[in-house]
Amino acid sequence: MASSPCLRLRAGYVTAPGNPGRAQWITAAHKDPFGPATWQITFDSSTPVELVHDAHAALLDLHLEGRDSFSDPLFRYSLTQYDAYAPLLTRGWSHVVDTGGTQFFTAPDDACGLEYSYALPRHRNPPTRSGKPGEATGRPPHWTAQFTRLTPTDLVTAFTTSLLSAEPVKRTVKDIPHRSRYAVKIAAAATPVPNSLPAPVATPPPRPATNRTR
Questions:
Q1: How far is CA 157 from CA 55, 126, 161, in A?
Q2: Phi and psi based region of residue 162 (left: phi greater than 0; alpha: psi -120 to 50; beta: remaining)
Q3: I want to staple 113 with a disulfide (CB 3.0 to 4.6 A). Which of 32, 127, 133, 182 is the partner?
Q4: Distance (Å, rounded) from C-alpha 103 to C-alpha 98?
C-alpha cells in the first residue's frame, strides 16, 4: 500500500474481500485524509497491466496539477461523463440506453463492454468488463475494472483511451487465457533504429620525419 504525501490518495495491491486467493488493485481518494473514500477505482488481478499503468499515470498528473494550482482536480467530476465514453463511440462501439438508468457500450467484436449507471447516484459506475454487457455470455469475464461515482472524468477517459489503444504489448503464451487466444494478433518485434551514426574515429596524423646525426 502506498500513500501520497498529502495522505489523500492511497493505492495498493491487496487481497480481494471474501476471496483470499485473489488480489486486486485499489486506488482511493479522500477529501478528508482521515475520512471515508470520496471515490475509488478497483482493478482485479487479471486486468492488463497497461490499463492499470495508464490510469495511475493520469492519477499522478491530476495530483501534480492540484499541487501546483489552486484547483482540486482530484475531485473534478462531470455528471455526463461524455468525455469518458466519447472515444468508444468514435471507434465504432455500439451504444444502448435502457430505462433503468444504465448505458451499455459494446466493442465491435463483442470482446469487451462498458456499463455506465447514470441515474443511480450511489451506484458504482462504470464497471468495464470483457464479454457483452447486459447479456448472459455463459462465462465469467476475463477481468473487470470499476469506477465509483465521483471518480474524476479525466481518469475514466484515460482508462477508455488506453482500452482502445492498438499499440502491441509483450505477452508470453502462458500470460494469455486459453479462451481468448483466438483473438490474438501477432506483431513483429520492432527493431530499434539508432538516432545517429557513430562519429568516425579520427586517424592520427603521420609522425614527421627526423634526421638523426651522431
A1: 9, 11, 6
A2: alpha
A3: 133
A4: 7
Q: What is the pTM of this model?
A: 0.77
Alpha carbon dihedral 139, 145, 146, 151, in 10-degree steps, equals -160
Secondary structure in 3-state letters for 105-162 = EECCCCCEEEEEECCCCCCCCCCEEECCCCCCCCCCCCCEEEECCCCCHHHHHHHHHH
CA dihedral 191, 193, 194, 197 (to 10 degrees): 120
The residue-averaged pLDDT of 7-25 equals 87
For residues 124, 130, 136, 140, the Cα torsion angle rounded to the nearest 10 degrees is -90
pLDDT at 200: 58
Dihedral sign, Cα of residue 91, residue 94, residue 96, residue 101: negative
CA–CA dist 180, 65 (Å, integer): 39
Put the strands of the sheet holding 19-29 in their side by side order.
2-3, 9-16, 19-29, 39-44, 144-147, 128-130, 112-117, 102-106, 94-97
Give kind and range of the element (H or E) at residue 55. Answer: helix 49-67
The amino acid that residue 208 corresponds to is P
Name residues whose C-beta falls within 8 Å of residue 70's C-beta, 6 or more positions apart in sequence.
Answer: none
More confident residue, 164 or 171: 164
Does 55 score more than 90 pLDDT? yes
